[in-house]
Write a structure and sequence with these properties.
This protein is α/β, with parallel strands linked by helices. The protein has one domain: Alpha-Beta Barrel (TIM Barrel), CATH 3.20.20. The chain has eleven helices and eight strands. An eight-stranded parallel β-barrel has the order 1-2-3-4-5-6-7-8, surrounded by seven helices. The chain starts with 7 loop residues before the first strand and ends in a 5-residue tail after the last helix. The model has no long low-confidence stretch (mean pLDDT 97). The structure holds ligand LLZGTKA7. Ligand LLZGTKA7 binds next to β8 and α10. It is an enzyme of class 4 (lyase).
């Protein structure tokens, strides 16, 4: 049985274990999952995963691996061996990289969900042009999501703006994990392709990643409760 069926994933973007656990200890593992990203994992290491697992949380280890196929596959394996619920790679690493990572997990019969980042939610069309991609974010997300699905990924990270197209392109069971979630009370900050929690669920997101709108709110639990209410009660 999963710890939760909630679509909510709270991003624990903190500089140390104490701050991350102070937040986690206010959360309920039956009402959300948590995400450990580059800042927290690089500062604290695998001990943070152990501490969150001991508290009953399912953890998304968001390290966005992007390297040659062998290195990426071994890194994904190492993540899965920590018992995380989900981890990820950059789809831009290409089909052979994603296939190597998926096959490393399959060979070891590890059940960690492996998803691929398409286009970061902080990027808009001008950012893509800046790296030589003369396409819309939607076209690039569609292209990378198809490649990710063909390469054995369980889903993708994209913005909620692209989920209706991806539902049609990749089917309803393909995971659509969407950061860039901004409730009406929150600032967009560095995010560009945003949606509110309610809009994102209606658009077909399977999971919503939410960081600062909760973790940097004056009252984080009130912010989370407001999001749950927007989603129709306890998510
Ligand atoms: O495209 C992406 C991929 C990952 N993220 C991560 O999600 C959270 C979002 O945090 P907010 O504070 O709600 O903006 C953060 O950990 C990012 O590293 C993303 O935003 N976009």
């Amino acid at each position: 049985m999963p710890a939760t069926t909630s679509p909510l994933i709270i991003a624990l973007d903190y500089p140390d274990m104490a701050a991350a656990l102070a937040m986690a200890d206010q959360l309920d593992p039956t009402r959300c999952r948590v995400k450990v990203g580059k800042e927290l994992f690089t500062r604290v290491g695998p001990d943070i995963l152990k501490a969150l697992h001991q508290r009953g949380f399912e953890v998304f280890l968001d390290l966005k691996f992007h390297d040659i196929p062998n290195t990426t596959a071994q890194a994904v394996l190492a993540a899965a061996e920590h018992g995380v619920w989900m981890t990820n790679v950059h789809a831009g690493g290409g089909a052979r990289m994603m296939e190597a990572a998926a096959s490393a997990l399959a060979t070891r019969q590890l059940e960690t969900r492996l998803i691929a980042v398409t286009v970061l939610t902080s990027m808009e069309q001008s950012d893509l042009a800046g790296i030589g991609l003369d396409v819309t974010p939607l076209a690039q997300v569609e292209r990378l999501a198809s490649l990710a699905q063909q390469s054995g990924m369980h889903g993708v990270v994209c913005s909620a703006r692209e989920t209706p197209s991806l539902k049609a392109l990749c089917g309803p069971d393909f995971l659509k994990v969407t950061p860039g979630i901004r409730p009406s009370f929150a600032q967009a900050g560095d995010q560009r392709r945003t949606m509110t929690p309610g809009e994102a669920m209606a658009a077909g997101s399977t999971h919503l990643v939410i960081g600062r709108p909760v973790t940097q709110a004056e009252n984080p639990m009130a912010a989370l409760a407001a999001i749950e209410t927007e989603l129709g009660g306890r998510a």
